[in-house]
Amino acid sequence: MKTRSIVHAPKSFVVLSLCVLLFSFQYTNAQLIVNPGAPQTTCAGDSVTLGGSPTAQGGTPAYTYTWTPTAGMPHPNDPNPTVQVNATTMFYVIVNDNAGNRSHDSVLITVSNVQAATAGNDTAICPQTSGARLGSSGNMASFNYVWTPINSNLSCYNCAHPQATPTITTTYTLTASNGTCSNTTQVIVTVLASPTITVTSPVTVKEGSEVTINASGAVKYFWMPDSVTIFNPNTPNPEVFPNVTTTYTVTGIGADGCPGFNFVVVKVTPDKDLTFYNTFTPNGDGINDYWFIGNLDLYPNNTLTIFNRYGQQVFFAAPYYNEWDGTVSGSKLPDATYYYLLDTGTGTQYKGAVTIIRKPK
Fold first, then answer.
1. Does domain 115-191 have CATH number 2.60.40.60?
2. ω into residue 44 within 30 of 0, thus cis?
3. By three-state DSSP, how is residue 46 classified?
4. For residue 161, how many other CB atoms are within 10 A of its CB?
5. Nearest-angstrom CA–CA distance, 265 and 247
6. What is the rounded distance in angstroms from the CA atom of residue 111 to the CA atom of residue 173?
7. For the segment 16-37, what is each residue's pLDDT rounded down to a tens digit?
8. Is the peptide bond preceding residue 149 cis, with omega within 30 degrees of 0?
9. Which end of the chain is more exposed for a tag (fewer CB within 10 A), N or C?
């Protein structure tokens, strides 16, 4: 009778085989783990390395990597790519293993906020003004600042927001730092030109008379003193009737919005005679809109009557204060010649003619 022999494997071989099988089972069934690396803070424009050591483990090797966003990242499929960072960014990585498993994670790379500290926006100023405030809203007190050029009409050279009052157009450079990172920016402060205001020469008039003074070289005008001795102070050619010698100062605003200045001296020679002007133009343009009688203030008890050519009364005042605007009961009188009778209240009367001409504005 034949017997079957049984060959037993060595115990050491059996143990080794079981260990290999167990290890293989555990390795191929381990969870796929992704390590995107630790969050970092860096300076704008610097390069950082993403991912861990290693970036992936578990699952079934080999692994494939996909990093996003890819801007500034030459090799987005590397486990540890380098990337140039200009702004705070969240980076994402997706890992696939050889068994079709997928996992993902993300890491935040923060760019230092010193980048928010800048010299500010280009600006323009007028000469002889308070100037321009430099810097931006991102200029925090905790940063260090260096402004150049030195001795260039800045209120300070190591502060966040200096006041700039240059006399010529100047480019200012700011370097802001926080001990680790720095940011250098520039701002241009343009100095505009003031207008050259030309005025009439000194003028001499008799007391009670009016005269037109003139200015040119600007687009807007403001005369001072803006008082009862001046008509139309916001025009280049106001009419003035001072009782005493007066200096009239004009501010002219140029096309760039900058002011220029000049003045006219109106010298008054004493004269008690009344001055009657034979024409006025009451069209509402602010120029010669009222009939004016010079030195009338010397006769406070005067009475004035105005008649049309038919002898009908169209205006009466007692006293008259140079306020007639060519109307009767609020209605405009037609352009024509009218006749006045002025009683000074001192026993003297004056008669004459005055013409209304409503020239276009």
1. yes
2. no
3. strand
4. 14
5. 4
6. 22
7. 444 443 444 444 458 999 999 9
8. yes
9. N
* CATH number of 275-356, picked from 2.40.160, 2.40.128, 2.60.40, 2.10.25: 2.60.40
pLDDT digits (tens, 9 = 90+) for 263-278: 999 999 888 888 898 9
Intervals of CATH 2.60.40.10 along the chain: 33-111, 198-269
Four-CA torsion 318, 321, 322, 328, nearest 10 degrees: -40
Tell me the residue length of the chain.
361
Q: Would you say 127 and 258 are in contact if contact means Cβ atoms under 8 Å apart?
A: yes
Q: What is the identity of the amino acid at 331? A: S
Q: String of b and e for 247-263 (b: at least 16 CB within 10 Å)?
A: ebebbbbbeeebbbebe
CATH 3.90.1010.10 fits 33-111, yes or no: no
Q: Are 129 and 196 in contact (CB under 8 A)?
A: no
Identify which of 106, 99, 97 has the alpha carbon closest to the alpha carbon of residue 56: 97
